[in-house]
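Hey,

Quick one before I head out. I ran the complex with S-adenosylmethionine overnight. Inputs first:
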Amino acid sequence: MHKLTSPRTIEDILKRHGFKMSKKFGQNFLTDENIVLKIVNAAGVTEDDVVLEIGPGIGAMTAKLCERAKHVLAVEIDKMLIPILDETLAEYENCTVINEDILKLDINAEIIKHTEKKIKVVANLPYYITTPIIMGLLEKDIPIESITVMIQKEVAERIAATPGGKEYGALTVACGYYTKPQLSFIVPASVFIPKPKVDSAVIHMEVRDDRLMDKNDKDRFFAVVKAGFANRRKTLLNTLSNNLHYEKPDVKKALLQAGIEESRRAETLSFEDFKRIAEAFGKL
Ligand code: SAM
């Protein structure tokens, strides 16, 4: 079998199967073997791992994952790609292709068939639903050890941002609540067909074991983050009293208790700062 990243091979396979790439499903296939290897390496996949791949496309990365992992669950929404994957992955017995929408699939039910351990998620994500996929994986109770995904560079920079900059926002804090994000490397638009409009980046997120807060604190934490960034140019005192169900004196009291000046803005607060504010509201 020729390399599944070779533009010639991709063209040939697609032609033989009468397959047309779909914008609707965010289909941009990788044409650089080296990048595929770098993603698999960044994920640190070993022979004990069960890997969930979202959107295998024609299977270029799936094949590499099958060579490294114990088992690969590859979830592909486009039914037209299934006969192609049957062909390109025929030699791998440790691969299950599931023709489903990742946002609708009961992922836990699939994982349990293959392992009792935490899984690793590896993907070149469809860009039109990057955030719902990542947040969906984190919010549902899925046993995940790490998530290594290629996404738009701009979103990767937002996820890995530090307080104070313009990229720092609700998405940064939400991902930081569940994981320790690290931007692994940048990928130019030129290594995909078709070529997307923006550059990409690979982000590696180790999922935290220490889910710090109980359910009520967690809900409060996310409410504070949402309210804080609802008007990011306003002071915390104003944006929190406008967007939470608390009167101004109560917001003042909670901020004081958390040791946060009321004139600060959400974009300057660390994860720990948000946590202290949420806990202070809990004690009012
Ligand atoms: N992994 C391939 C590669 O790197 O060349 C393809 C990546 S392409 C950016 C995204 C893939 O996700 C496509 O194969 C697309 O059909 C699939 N996809 C899009 N939406 C999906 C969804 N909701 N659930 C599962 N797969 C989806």
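Residues 215-230 form the longest helix (16 residues).

Talk tomorrow,
K.
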